[in-house]
Amino acid sequence: MPRSARPAVVPLQLRFVAHARSGDKGDTANVGLIALEPGLYPLLVREVTRARVARHFRGMVSGVERFELPNLHALNFLLHGALDGGGTLSLKTDAQGKVYSTALLRMEIPVPAALARRLRRSAG
Amino acid sequence: MTRVAKGKVVRVAAGQGFWGDWLEAPVHQVQDGPIDYLMLDYLAEVTMSIMQKQKSRDPAMGYARDFPPLMERILPDVVARGIRVTSNAGGVNPRGCAEAVLAATRRLGLRGKVTVGLVTGDDILDRLDDLIARGHELRDMDTGRPLADIRDKVLSANAYIGMSPIVDALAGGANVVVTGRVTDTGLTLGPLVHEFGWSPDDWDRIAAGTVAGHIIECGAQASGGNLLRDWRSVRGLANPGFPIVEARADGTFVVTKHKGSGGVVSIPSVSEQLVYEMGDPHAYITPDGVADFTSIQLERAGRDRVRVSGIQGGARTPMLKVSIAWFYGYKAVGTLVYAWPDAYDKARAADRILRERLAALGLGFDQILTEYVGAGATHGRLAGPPDPEAPEVQLRVGVRARERAPVERFTREIAPLVLTGPPSVTGFAGGRPAVEEIVAYWPALIDRREIEPHVRVELLTA
Questions:
Q1: Which of B271, B274, B440 lies at the smallest CB-CB distance from A87?
Q2: Which of A65, A111, A116, B370 is the most buried (most CB within 10 A)?
């Protein structure tokens, strides 16, 4: 494909692509990341890799695991060592990882420009 | 197997998602529409240890104290409408809890109309030394340490037990089932197994009832509460409809809520709850079986109705999880609020001064953690650089230690910063922070054959 014909790609925050909820098990936070539309799920699978999420949270977690749930158009991330000991030991405001979900939604992924425009618009 | 009428639907309604949830919810569930079962989940990982602490001060305590007065409120309707209640409100004293319900029954003049099914046998605190002596190491699932390392600090120890004693209690005629550490999901699965006569090794049905339980065990978190997707569009949260499962014998079910209630039941609301506290989605392990969350199919079935189907499961594991609470030490959190201009810089300067003073006092802490609320307390560096124009930033300093004395001393070092530190500071009217005891959680596994023979069901009447 000639360079000019390649669709432009722009960075887009995950908040425009997915919604999320998080919880805890001990010192591990989980973030379930759910595509806003079923058609966006392959984009999540391709772009929200384990390595990228680990880089996003570097210094905040000790390890990341990723699981795929195509039936729910969702990915589940386990963020190990994320909660400063977790449970009652943790001194953190978010000791139970309740809002780690939104911290993941800050992450940017490369998205075709036209799609990014549409997703930004539909977010209002 | 019992014959089940074709098309039979069993409605299980969630009334509480944790100890401290909205007190009006179970009343609405009972009064505002048809339900068959009311499921009240009170127990989280740390709840058992709080209850154990209360029981050590007063042997009559140790259960969810909200439960008996709630039952006193709703029992007349529960009895009149033939609703049955399942609850793990019993905590570490299910017998005391059951007796309090029976006392309420007598006060209401409902003698003979209420049978309480009391489930015991999950509490292994008195058996720990025997179990350890017989080779059960009860290693911490996260750290691998054997329980012997902290045996003298253990406050409570309970095995997670499954749905079968609930099924037995219902079969015996109980209309209120009170348990200790029965799993959250077992409170929903039990009624479905009882009603549909599912075999305990019909793994797909067991998984289906487990997923149904998971969806409603956190109350309104499945029906519009704490829903991130389009959160502004969620209406009526002043009176949120808690979720209800309408289950069928084939293991399919619809998640819904009472007509006229607030909130929303939608594919997004159910999906967010499904991923909550999720580990490996292929293996959601409970004492009753293993559910595969990648098999769950969701489909819109009308306004505030989501149909759930396709659920597959696997055989139960030979081990049960044990929830052990142990005394770790002490902690305290102190806060002060710094105002514009340069709120964050002032808060940081205060933190430096505080830490210098703590060091000069020679206080030993396991940890000192400083957060700046309003400047990245929850998202850390992902929140970006602090805004110098922020109207205020809260300095929040937490300390943790094995001994009480250093933590106690720390609580006296917050207020002095007001007159001896950076300016524009407020928000200290609450006085000294409280010293809190830390009860830590120790998850372990045990052979289910050590637990199941001890599980008992008693049927009690007023």
A1: B440
A2: A111
The answer to whether the CB of B243 falls within 8 A of the CB of B256 is yes
**A60 at the B interface (CB within 8 A)?**
yes
Please judge whether B271 and A78 are an interchain contact, meaning their C-beta atoms are less than 8 angstroms apart: no
pLDDT attached to residue A5: 63
- Residue A31 dihedral angles phi and psi, to the nearest 5°: -125, 120
Instruction: Find out whether B29 and B244 touch, Cβ atoms under 8 Å.
Output: yes
- Each domain of chain B, given as residue ranges in start order, spans 9-122+160-317, 327-442
Tell me B423's DSSP state: S
Give the Cα separation of B133 and B130 in Å (integer).
Answer: 5
CA distances from B184 to B19, B230, B231, B458 (A): 12, 28, 27, 20
B293-337: per-residue pLDDT in tens? 999 999 999 999 999 999 999 999 999 999 999 999 999 999 999
Mutate to test the interface with A, among B48, B142, B150, B278 (most CBs of A within 10 A): B278
Please give the Cα distance from B397 to B358 (Å, whole number): 12
> How far is CA B234 from each of CA B239, B240, B276, rounded to the nearest angstrom?
12, 10, 19
Helices B186-196/B164-171 angle, 10° precision: 50
- Predicted pLDDT at A3: 57
Concatenate the DSSP letters of all residues of A53-98 into one string: HHHHTBTTBSEEEEEEEGGGTEEEEEEET-STT-TTT--STTTT-T
The domains found in chain A, sorted by start residue, are 14-86+94-122 (3.30.70)
Whether B46 shows a pLDDT value over 80: the answer reads no
Per-residue pLDDT, B379? 96
**pLDDT for the residue B2:** 56
Q: Is residue A14 within 8 Å of A108, Cβ to Cβ?
A: yes
pLDDT tens digits for range A30-72: 999 999 999 999 999 999 999 999 999 999 999 999 999 999 9
Chain A positions touching B296 (Cβ under 8 A) are: 71-72
Residue B52 is predicted with a pLDDT of 85
Could you tell me which of B81, B2, B98, B99 has the C-alpha nearest to residue B38? B81
B327-442 CATH, one of 3.30.70.2750, 3.20.20.410, 3.40.190.80, 3.40.190.10: 3.30.70.2750
Please write the tens of the pLDDT for every residue from B255-291.
Answer: 999 999 999 999 999 999 999 999 999 999 999 999 9
Within 8 A of B398 by CB-CB distance, chain A residues are 91-92
Mean local confidence (pLDDT), B201-210? 98
Mean pLDDT of B156-169: 97
The one-letter amino acid at B267:
I
Chain A, nearest residue to B398 by Cα: A91
ipTM for this model: 0.95
Is B355 within 8 Å of B368 (Cβ atoms)?
yes
3-state secondary structure of B128: helix
Q: Mean pLDDT across the stretch B47-58?
A: 87
